[in-house]
Design a protein that fits this description.
Distance between the termini: 36 Å
Number of helices: 11
Structural class: alpha+beta
Strand order of the largest sheet: 1-2-3-4
Number of strands: 4
Helix content: 55-70%
Order of helices and strands: HHHHHHHEHHHEHEE
Shape: globular
Strand content: 5-15%
Length: 271
């Protein structure tokens, strides 16, 4: 009797039985999280699920844009115009990033993008907190629109949506796994701020959602800023399609680095 070998689905094949079975097995998740289902099955697995920040952004940012649009609008008609602004900003930035010249995702871009996402998260929180203060309401509106727009820009700088190769870190060294003192400190700081917002602010729900996203962005920022090795891999749509013999471009070991600058020396080897 011949042995059945579980081979990966060909990447140039649009659909096959394995992909159909994979889709049907996850169909029960669709009512609970349609967005997660769509991201998992209709986007590259390596693009979205390599970093938690990607998943968190797509689950929190649309919700925040929807909720805050009504905070900054006296009438529903105006709120829908704000929602259209957010949608237009997202679509136009995605289309613009499609023509970028980056072939390989770089660590410095990830650091800069995540730092910007953390910064914009706190700017959004401050904008929401100060929106009803007569002295600052105009500044609050300006900060709100700029921050929500730049959040998309920084995401696209961080992410690898339109690159051929992406950065893959060692999951076993993830801050969520190691749980070091930095993670504990950042977590406690966010909890303290969350408690203060919950006790003092009317718009606590919107602020807490943004605060949660900020925590995840901070952890990933710490991760990409403290790594000593990483792998450059080719994108793949399904997790089982990854082939180390063909899809790993090179492994890199960081021997020297400086804050906000390119790494001075990188020892790398083609695989």
């Amino acid at each position: 009797m011949s042995k059945i070998i579980d081979r990966p689905s060909p990447k140039n094949l649009v659909f096959d039985k394995r992909k159909l079975k994979y889709l049907l097995n996850d169909l029960w998740k669709f009512p609970f999280s349609p967005l997660y289902f769509c991201l998992k099955h209709f986007a590259n697995y390596s693009t979205i699920f390599t970093f938690t920040s990607n998943i968190v952004f797509w689950h929190t940012f649309p919700l925040i844009c929807f909720l805050t649009s009504f905070l900054y609008s006296a009438e529903k008609r105006d709120a829908f115009l704000v929602i259209i602004f957010h949608a237009f900003s997202l679509v136009m930035n995605m289309l613009a990033s499609w023509h970028n010249e980056r072939t390989i995702q770089k660590i410095k871009h990830m650091q800069f993008g995540l730092f910007g996402m953390v910064l914009m998260s706190w700017c959004l929180i401050l904008a929401i907190i100060t929106k009803d203060i007569e002295k600052y309401w105009k500044v609050s509106q300006v900060v709100y629109y700029i921050s929500s727009y730049l959040m998309i820009v920084f995401l696209l700088i961080f992410a690898s949506y339109h690159t051929e190769y992406h950065v893959k870190l060692d999951d076993e060294k993830s801050p969520f796994v190691e749980r070091n003192l930095f993670i504990l400190g950042v977590g406690i700081a966010h909890i303290i701020v969350a408690f203060a917002i919950f006790m003092t602010q009317v718009y606590w729900l919107e602020c807490l959602i943004i605060l949660f996203a900020s925590f995840i962005y901070s952890i990933d920022l710490y991760w990409v800023s403290t790594i000593d090795a990483y792998t450059i891999q080719k994108h793949y749509h399904y997790e089982w399609q990854f082939d180390p013999r063909e899809d790993i471009y090179y492994n890199a070991i960081i021997t020297c680095k400086r804050l906000w600058k390119d790494y001075e020396t990188i020892e790398w080897s083609l695989v």
